[in-house]
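hi! just following up on the protien thing from before. the input was this:
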Amino acid sequence: MSEQQTQSEARHVVVVGAGMAGVQTAVALREQGFTGAVTLIGAEPHQPYDRPPLSKAVLLGKAEGSAFEVDFDALGVDLRLGLEVTGVRPGEHRVVTEAGEVGYDTLVIATGAEPLTLPGSGGVPGVHLLRTLDDARRLRPVLDQRHRIVVVGAGWIGAEFATAARDAGCEVTVVEAADRPLAGVLPAAVAAPMTGWYAEAGAELLTGARVRSVVPGEVRLADGRALPADAVVVGIGARPATGWLAGSGIALGPEGAITADARLRTSLPDVYAVGDCVSFPSARFGERLLVHHWDNALQGPRTVAADIVGEAPADYDPVPYFWSEQFGRFVQYAGHHADTDELIHRGDPSSTPWSVCWLRDGALVAVLAVGRPRDLAQGRKLIESAAPLNPSLVADPAIPLKSTTLT
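and the predicted 3d structure came back as:
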């Protein structure tokens, strides 16, 4: 805010985006004593909901939705749903919506990320994304009919959808342009063992395979192969949903994320950003982070709310955390493993459970755990403490991680 306004000055906070980050911002404001007006604007018509169940319970018809258990009326939050925000005019402190303009004293941007689409697939029948509740509901009948499904992308969402599709009895082929699953996320030494998970589950994984085009009933690859497909699910990544900020003067990074400071304040006064749409500087990891995961959307709002009410919070510098359920395995990750100098396996990756630790200058900076939740929990605390570890002890899966410190 204008050296960010105190609570008494911030009479009206408008939060754009009603996903986890937006909802938690509204909740955190009230929890931290903010008594001014709070307006929460969401583009979807549904009651705000959690996204992780979409690729699991909702997709398989085990739940109709995953609405947050938040009483917005009791919190005194003006919830406006089904309303697209198309722009912001910071000079006038107003956001522009399809139904007119809304004034604010403080603006919090929580618009999240939007899935990347497959070039040339727009308008082709049977091509799906999986990001929203409506996406999951559209895909349910596809699974119910046990169709032949081609999944484009062997990242986290591709693996989770392939898992659900196989559980539903569908014939599944996963197409990945890289030479292994999760190529943009994990090094080969870690991701390569995951290749076998697909075959174990009865799904065919094609690596080094690029999609040339998608036509009704078929996916055509660059090498000339044609894959029959009653449905195609695209999971090739996501980008920050910030296109609506064009011309606003709010600084964006090269990946399209809002560039915020350590308190999640944007380049303009009275405007914050939180969740998947914003990058922030991390002193812990020595670089700016863009984190597209649920835990970031849960934690960041507390920093934003504290700064709005004038509590001068500590810099936002979390240990990133996420999890994935795929092919009968619970996969968890904490930290950030760029620029590390040592990678240590704990256990045999050809079986379950196992984990991997990344060290920098002798301290743990990231851990990936497959069926080893204690490694994840203890590793997360060790990352926070930056305690030096004994690598030979770390490599022994029989020794608890918390017992591997040198001090």
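The first helix runs from residue 20 to 31.
The chain is about 20% helix and 30% strand.
cheers
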